[in-house]
């Protein structure tokens, strides 16, 4: 056998065995085909052994056998590479399936868009964030759920950033399919290839609950800060009220406290005229007089004006006006607070602010209480000034048919009523009056039926005049005067007419007193106004005057009774024992003591009407 033939057959048999081995290990049908091909080629080679003459004739067959064996080898290498590629592809597909599942089950909305922003993919979570199902947003642009809360400049900046290849992160306010607003925490990133943007991926997370909670906390903090600042202003106002000694100081300090606060801009006080209702400012802080005049004109443009509504309704009035007051172009928020105390009207306090939230936390009752506090302070300083002033203004009024408890009694009984003293358990509603030209029983019967009188106690009757202690249900003209810091010098009513003389400290606002009386009582006419220098009696002067009026025996009886504890309770010594000390009878002692007491109390109460 020629060696060439033998080698060719050996190569073919080797190829058949190698192919069978690869077929068994890889189960690749291509190796099965090669196995058959090599088997048939080997059989043919064996059949040609007997007929071949020389080995040279089989040389091509030897080349074919070698090439076939190489084919098996290279196919095995290709199969290994192919299997490796398949393994990699399978692993990649598994990862992609894992990624897809992660995206499908992610709690955040995930979008893929083309470079123009058209949505190509959306995961199921998009419905929880936008309200739209995934199929509804495919082919749409994310502007579908824009809320209009962001301007064009905002979106231009967003697109400029992601188009340059950078990631954009931020918060968006969108509108769900239902129309409700929601807050979104968004991340938008470009997907690039060789520097070119192929797609964009957007991840959106609904943070509405967190945002609303933050806004609530922020609002609570702002409101708490506002409340603290307001309380600070009110504390400052109350502190200044205690320290102020005149009405001008009170009003100036109140206006200054409000105007210097971060919450408020301007504050002023003023009153309305009785004839034409015009408003006249008295104190102001935070603006100039020209701006204040323009503001008052704008404030009083409505009918009724907020000032009339506040004073007539005895309640604060909150309003907005359109003017340029204190630089608040287009609008100012105001509160008009009536300054009234127990029926006395002292004008209004007006506070203005450009902060629309400044009045949100402040209850109306707080401003109402502030108005009463300021008015109370004004009443107190004016009363103090009237009591302590050396220079007073004496006002004389003629009364005709006025409607007040004592005047109604004088008209009904056709008698003369004079006020002797005001004060007692119920302050100015308790008055001691003398009644002439009427029986005491008739006065008691009238008082029991009169609407304006709660009770009447007959004290005594002397020389045709009866003294009564009256508890009035309605406020009287005397009490009205007291609220404005005026003291009553005398008040006498006879039938339907009468005369009232009052004293007011010259430093007080005389017009306010007159206006208040004429507004309350139609039948009251001011007939005289006189300036007086009041004699101020010192304690030492009072002692000397009283001592001069007492006789020696009266002074001795009072002194002995005092040091003997006769006026203590329980008494240390009886009247009989004190009389024995003086070596006089008890009757004589009692007469001297009563006379001394009468002179003492006359000095305290008889000179003029007093208000305690």
From TrEMBL:
Q: Per its UniProt entry, which superkingdom is the organism in?
A: Archaea
Q: Does the keyword Transmembrane helix apply?
A: yes
Q: Which UniProt keywords apply?
A: Membrane, Transcription, Transcription regulation, Transmembrane, Transmembrane helix
Looking at the record, the residues that make up the PAC domain are 166-219
Q: Which InterPro entries match?
A: BAT_GAF/HTH-assoc, GAF, GAF-like_dom_sf, HTH_bacterioopsin, PAC, PAS, PAS-assoc_C, PAS-like_dom_sf
Q: Which Pfam families match?
A: BAT, GAF_2, HTH_10, PAS_9
Q: Does the keyword Cell membrane apply?
A: no
Domain PAS residue range list: 95-141
Enumerate the Gene3D superfamilies for this protein: 3.30.450.40, PAS domain
Membrane-spanning parts: 6-24
This chain belongs to the protein called Bacterio-opsin activator-like protein
Record organism: Halorubrum kocurii JCM 14978
């Amino acid at each position: 056998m020629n060696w060439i033939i033998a080698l060719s057959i050996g190569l073919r048999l080797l190829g058949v065995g190698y192919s069978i081995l690869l077929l068994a290990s890889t189960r690749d049908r291509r190796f099965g085909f090669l196995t058959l091909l090599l088997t048939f080629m080997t059989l043919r080679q064996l059949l040609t052994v007997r007929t071949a003459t020389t080995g040279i004739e089989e040389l091509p067959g030897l080349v074919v056998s070698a090439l076939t064996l190489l084919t098996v080898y290279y196919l095995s290498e290709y199969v290994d590479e192919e299997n490796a590629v398949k393994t990699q592809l399978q692993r990649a597909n598994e990862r992609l399936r894992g990624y897809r599942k992660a995206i499908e089950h992610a709690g955040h909305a995930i979008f893929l868009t083309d470079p123009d922003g058209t949505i190509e993919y959306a995961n199921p979570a998009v419905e929880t964030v936008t309200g739209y199902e995934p199929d509804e947003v495919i082919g749409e642009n994310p502007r579908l759920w824009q809320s209009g809360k962001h301007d064009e400049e905002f979106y231009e900046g967003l697109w400029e950033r992601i188009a340059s290849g950078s990631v954009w992160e931020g918060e968006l306010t969108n509108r769900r399919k239902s129309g409700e607003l929601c807050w979104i925490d968004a991340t938008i990133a470009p997907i690039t290839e060789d520097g070119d943007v192929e797609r964009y991926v957007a991840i959106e997370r609904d943070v509405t609950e967190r945002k609303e909670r933050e806004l609530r906390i922020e609002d609570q903090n702002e409101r708490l800060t506002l409340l603290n600042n307001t309380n600070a202003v009110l504390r400052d106002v109350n502190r200044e009220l205690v320290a102020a000694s005149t009405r001008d100081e009170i009003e100036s300090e109140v206006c200054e406290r409000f105007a210097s606060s971060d919450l408020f801009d301007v504050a002023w006080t003023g009153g309305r005229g009785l004839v034409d209702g015009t408003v006249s400012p008295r104190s102001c802080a935070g603006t100039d007089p020209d701006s204040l005049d323009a503001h008052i004109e704008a404030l009083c443009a409505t009918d009724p004006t907020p000032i009339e509504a506040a004073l007539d309704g005895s309640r604060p009035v909150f309003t907005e006006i359109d003017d340029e007051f204190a630089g608040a172009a287009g609008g100012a928020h105001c509160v008009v607070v009536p300054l009234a105390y127990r029926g006395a009207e002292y004008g209004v306090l007006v506070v203005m602010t450009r902060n629309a939230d400044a009045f949100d936390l402040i209850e109306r009752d707080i401003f109402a209480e502030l108005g009463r506090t300021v008015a109370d302070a004004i009443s107190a300083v004016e009363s103090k000034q009237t009591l302590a002033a050396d220079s007073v203004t004496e006002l004389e009024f003629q009364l005709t048919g006025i409607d007040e408890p004592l005047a109604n009694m004088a008209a009904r009984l056709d008698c003369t009523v004079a006020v002797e003293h005001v004060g007692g358990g119920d302050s100015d509603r308790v008055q001691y009056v003398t009644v002439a030209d009427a029986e005491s029983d008739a006065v008691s019967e009238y008082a029991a039926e009169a609407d304006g009188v709660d009770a009447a106690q007959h004290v005594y009757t002397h020389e045709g005049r009866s003294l009564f202690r009256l508890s009035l249900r309605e406020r009287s003209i005397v009490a009205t005067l007291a609220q404005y810091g005026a003291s009553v010098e005398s008040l006498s009513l006879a039938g339907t007419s009468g005369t009232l003389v009052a004293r007011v400290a010259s430093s007080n606002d005389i017009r306010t007193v007159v206006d208040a009386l004429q507004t309350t009582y139609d039948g009251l006419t001011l007939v005289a106004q006189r300036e007086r220098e009041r004699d101020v009696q010192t304690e030492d002067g009072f002692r000397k005057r009283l001592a001069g009026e007492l006789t020696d025996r009266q002074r001795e009886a009072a002194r002995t009774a005092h040091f003997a504890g006769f006026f203590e309770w329980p008494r240390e010594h009886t009247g009989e024992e004190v009389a024995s000390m003086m070596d006089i009878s008890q009757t004589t002692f009692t007469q001297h003591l009563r006379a001394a007491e009468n002179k003492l109390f006359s000095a305290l109460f008889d000179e003029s009407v007093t208000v305690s």
